[in-house]
Amino acid sequence: MTELKNDLFLRACLREDVERTPVWMMRQAGRYLAEYRATRARAGGFLNLCRSPELCSEVTLQPIDILDADAAILFSDILVVPEAMGMELTFGVGEGPKFPDPITCLADVEKLPIPDPMVELKYVMDAVSTIRRDLNGRVPLIGFAGSPWTLATYMVEGGGSKNFSKVKAMAFNEPATMHLLLEKLADSVAAYLNGQIASGAQAVQIFDTWGGILTTRDYNEFSLQYMKRIVEQLTRTSEGRRVPVILYTKGGMGWLEAIADTGCDVVGLDWSIDIDVAKARIGHKVALQGNMDPTMLYAKPERIRAEVKDILARFGHGNGHVFNLGHGITPDVPPQHAIEFFKAVREESVRYHG
Amino acid sequence: MTELKNDLFLRACLREDVERTPVWMMRQAGRYLAEYRATRARAGGFLNLCRSPELCSEVTLQPIDILDADAAILFSDILVVPEAMGMELTFGVGEGPKFPDPITCLADVEKLPIPDPMVELKYVMDAVSTIRRDLNGRVPLIGFAGSPWTLATYMVEGGGSKNFSKVKAMAFNEPATMHLLLEKLADSVAAYLNGQIASGAQAVQIFDTWGGILTTRDYNEFSLQYMKRIVEQLTRTSEGRRVPVILYTKGGMGWLEAIADTGCDVVGLDWSIDIDVAKARIGHKVALQGNMDPTMLYAKPERIRAEVKDILARFGHGNGHVFNLGHGITPDVPPQHAIEFFKAVREESVRYHG
Fold first, then answer.
1. Hey, which of A238, A341, B189, B227 has its CA 20 to 30 A from B44?
2. What's the whole-model pTM score?
3. pLDDT value of residue A95
4. Among the CATH numbers 3.20.20.210, 3.10.25.10, 3.40.50.720, 2.40.160.60, which is that of A8-352?
5. How far apart (Å, rounded) are the C-alpha atoms in residues A243 and A236?
6. At what angle do helices A225-233 and A175-199 cross, to 10 degrees?
7. Mutation for testing the B interface, residue in A156, A157, A167, A215 having most B CBs under 10 Å
8. What is the CB-side half-sphere exposure of residue A142 using CA atoms within 13 A?
């Protein structure tokens, strides 16, 4: 096992002492980078890229080189799990993901298997071990998966959605069907994340991109309890270190206390809440990850730096802060702005540590 | 002046005694109704419909007949204000609104006039007085406008947006330009709403559809202070009665206390917060409007009724609740579900009053 040269991210996730605040960024390996677009073109499309461990590793490492990020995150897509459950998945050019044959009834759910990650998702496991080899201990590698609710929205709607009419109708009218789907997804995701950890992931994040479209009671019933079910099944120690678990619900700032109570180590924040307010509400139970408005990266570098300083000052002294955006970086951000953002966090955070 | 036969809505807005909880619904005159689609087809498109006072009145009254709604809301579009400021506005078939020549710089903002609602928006004023004539005192008429920030997003982006990159870049990089735009919009909207009140609107609602994409500090700086500037300019008494002002920020549930402090009478809630939690946070300063998940209307009528009962029970006894959805009804809802929703509120709310 290669020793980690930079473990700031893992230490911050566990609220241990750090010399400065670590920073990474959701979608840091992505379309805003010309290097990423070139690799994707070579792969012949997005899904081909996801299926090539060597090319996954290439794009995963690009932001480590370009931004000097303190963590790498596996390059993949949350929808490879439903695909491994037997659902055909397509990404048309310039289109979002599509499931041409969506889930419509109990019989559709009953026939879904729990995939064996070492078989149906072996290409992801291979990507994880390839990335670890190529990282060579520079920074830790984060694995990830979509939340059961978020995956269910795509599987029932047949793709992205504006009003989520089908998945909501199923949740409201056929709750037993929805719960069976969510149970199967929770167990599939737990096995998948444990596979990633066994293959070398040193932390994992669950992305609940669409939890925020629910009411409080529906969030508890259809999203949060299934993320908790995953957390309870996860391998928490690997290679002699604790494997931090990060839960991120976009639009979930009303439910931070409940998210922190799932047993996760880190709560991911979107940008709709001030981080000092989040910290005061949650207390010292977990670390916080976030939470700069991703569109702040459209601003000039000096404005970005002012925002970084503001967020750092709000978090203040003390451990348990992983700097990130409140959601993924958007494709039309100039890469130089992202570089300046990372630099600002590295430089401005020193005063709050040591 | 015709006496109001049903003034439950106005009384609830002012936290006065009512016999049952009044109910209306955002976008209640809209595409889910075949009657609306027929009138729009006769008008020859959406903007033609907005410009015809007689046809506006026709569609405004449809949900009063069909749903027995306790309030009518002017049929119009928030973007008629920027259009009256000289910006060309188009609605392609099946497309969202477009401003082909968006605001890009200070010079663009400087040349924008504050429109005289009695001149450039006379067709809206005529619609208001026509609707009042046709309502003949059945229920009160609500006027409305978009918030300055929400209008600015369309004017700078040139239409709807996914990432709001242009309007955020202007706010972050050219704050003086953005503030001049928002000042002009606030004063235009205030004059426009006062025109609606003078023409017969008995309450007004400001729709801040895109306030929720901002951080707390940016919401205060770019959205809330300009809604407050409008509230401070509004005519608050007309025809011998107080004219309630409703503020609704979608995604603004983190800022309810600040919204309630603007001087408005009613805070509109989206569905991401339980109404009992909102009531506990705000106290008895204002009435609350909301807040059923609009997608609950995809559920079967018995499930809709259970949700109505839950929300009524959470609000509990006491005055100051206007039942509504947390956002507009979506076009593919079966009208019968909306009818059952209104019926459920009328029947189930009696136990909490008198």
1. B189
2. 0.96
3. 79
4. 3.20.20.210
5. 5
6. 30
7. A215
8. 29
